[in-house]
Amino acid sequence: PSLQILPPTGEVVTRKGGQVSFECKANGNPAPTVQWSKKDGLLPSGLQVETGYLLNLNEVQRQDGGIYQCTASNGIGQPVTGEIRLHVLYPPEVSVLRSWVNSGEGLEAKLDCIVHADPPSEV
């Protein structure tokens, strides 16, 4: 089988909460089947696969970013795989290592927090 990935750049950028669609057009005789997977992870919940070729993600989350693969096979020759990279932009998310810190009056206290954001934020 042969494969055409849409968008042709193989890369999609979206904001958190957005919607994206990937298309994987496969040709061959007999007609190939297409399977979607996510490299180094599970496919996100809430996605929709239409007619086997179109993958829709609604309400995209930060952890949905990564490389999505479509594999076309028809039992003749080797399967063909294409990749699309999803880059998710999201506002700062702050988490703390400890929710409380002991200190005395007039003493220093160290508060650690972790900030995730894309593009990176200033803390």
Give short descriptive properties of this protein.
Ig-like_fold; 51% strand; Immunoglobulin-like; single chain; immunoglobulin domain; 123 residues; Ig-like_dom_sf
CATH class: Mainly Beta
User: What proportion strand?
Assistant: over 45%
The helicity comes to under 10%
Average pLDDT? 88
Number of strands: 9
Say which CATH homologous superfamily is assigned.
Immunoglobulins
Structural write-up:
The protein has strands spanning 2-6, 11-15, 20-27, 33-38, 47-50, 54-57, 66-73, 80-96, 113-118. With 123 residues, it is an all-beta fold. The protein has one domain (2-89): Immunoglobulins (Immunoglobulin-like, Sandwich), CATH 2.60.40.10. Strands 2, 4, 7, 8 and 9 form a five-stranded mixed β-sheet that branches. Strand 5 and strand 6 form a beta hairpin. It starts with a strand and ends in a 5-residue tail after the last strand. The model has no long low-confidence stretch (mean pLDDT 88).
Q: Secondary-structure map with pairings?
A:
Layout: E1 2-6, E2 11-15, E3 20-27, E4 33-38, E5 47-50, E6 54-57, E7 66-73, E8 80-96, E9 113-118
GO cellular component, one term: plasma membrane
Domain Ig-like: 1-81
Pfam family, one: Ig_3
In short:
This protein has strands spanning 2-6, 11-15, 20-27, 33-38, 47-50, 54-57, 66-73, 80-96, 113-118. The chain is mainly beta.
